[in-house]
Amino acid sequence: MKKLWSVCLIAAMLAGCLTGCGGLGGKNAGDAPAETTTAEDAAGAGTKAEAPDGSAAGEVVEIQFFHTTWVEGMLDILEEAIAGFENEHPNIKIVETRTSWTDAPSQLMTSIAGGTAPDLIMCNPSMLAQFRGIGALADMTDLVPQEMLDSMLPSAVQMVTTEEGKIDGLPQEGCNWALFYRKDLFEEAGLDPEKPPKTWDEFLECAKALTKDTDGDGKIDQYGYGWPVQAENATDYWVNFMQMCGADISGYADGQWQSKLSDEAAKQGTQIMVDLVQEYGVSPKSVVDSDWEAICNMFVEGEVAMMHNGAWVTGSVAEKGPELDGKWGTAVLFDGPERAAYRGHPNTFNIMEASKHKQEAWEFLEYFYNTASTRDEGLTIAGSFCNASGGMLYTEDFVDYARDHYNEYLQPFLDEVYDCYIPPLDPQWETLASMYGRSTVQQMIMGDVSVDDGLKTLDHQLKLLHGE
């Protein structure tokens, strides 16, 4: 009964679940067109399939595959993979439903509630947490070989491992975030353009030196640092600030999730974020109205000298500011006051618990991850799928490939991948973020709400959502 209530509650709230993930040099997947395309019904479905030798191979099994692939190159690779798989498995037909990251959560929740859930889906972190939380994802522990698990990066293993230690997915295309900095502005401020900050103290020193009134009108027109705080960015980056201070944010113990927002580490992480605007004045208040692209524009225009942004933004900077060639760079994000905590995670493929064809769905995934690519030497189909968007497959083999093939701006992102921290996989986190978190974070940054009061509110609301 509790899980049924959770299905209904989350279905009413999923409109806020928008976050997709761009990749290393690709566009943000959150920009996918908000439309749904369903593949044509398989010709002859429900009839006898014919094996390669011409003999009957049994009834055709349809795998309903619900996904959010929209980048043209990725779609091409996915269609080729489906065709190749069906050629080798004539008794299995993959039937696609393609939608946007914006619409996917509510559409999936409706199908689950209506008993028409697909067999195989794509999830971003908030979707993974929510569908795992209501028991909608199948246990894949006995399907995923240990060798495959051993090849995954630590953050990928964390993403697909449940609170009980079971495996319920495979990592797919993902991204991470790092530091961008203007070398020309560093030099103008008397800073070494080849030595971006590595520690929190070095970062603050650089940010203060880079914050200037450049035209002498008494107003700051060049800030040291910017990061996106509009919409879902508010809580996504807030999480990273807290992780820099060692916060657990939300923990799982004794069979239930528990808020950690009243812990000192959470308070410290929230305070260092707010202080960038309120105490040190090295970041403009306008960050609360800025998404990733707005911060990118400010960086190109010289309004912020450093920014924290996603790997796909390297391409945007090059496109928007060709005159800046050689005048900017990227670097591993500086350490927080307590530890290095890099933001990065993959999206996932998951088989649904309601599926009557779990084995056949796994066979497709096995083909996708283990078959050599015909496009990129040294990669599997899964690797090429991620590479087509400039994205990243969170495996050691893919990182080795990327080190040899990615440009200089993307190399620092690769240097972070073994120390990435994933977002909270608390099934109530997205509800908290969309209903209370984003607005409260923005209010704290603007100085309208104190850190103590803001955290008390958010801690209280998360505990209510948990039933603590």
UniProtKB/TrEMBL annotation:
Gene3D superfamilies: Periplasmic binding protein-like II. Keywords: Signal. Residues 1-20 form the signal peptide. Residues 30-55 are annotated as: Disordered. The keyword Signal applies. The keyword Signal applies. InterPro entries: Bact_solute-bd_prot1, SBP. Pfam families: SBP_bac_1 (PF01547). Residues 30-53 have a biased composition (Low complexity). This is Sugar ABC transporter substrate-binding protein. It comes from Diplocloster modestus.
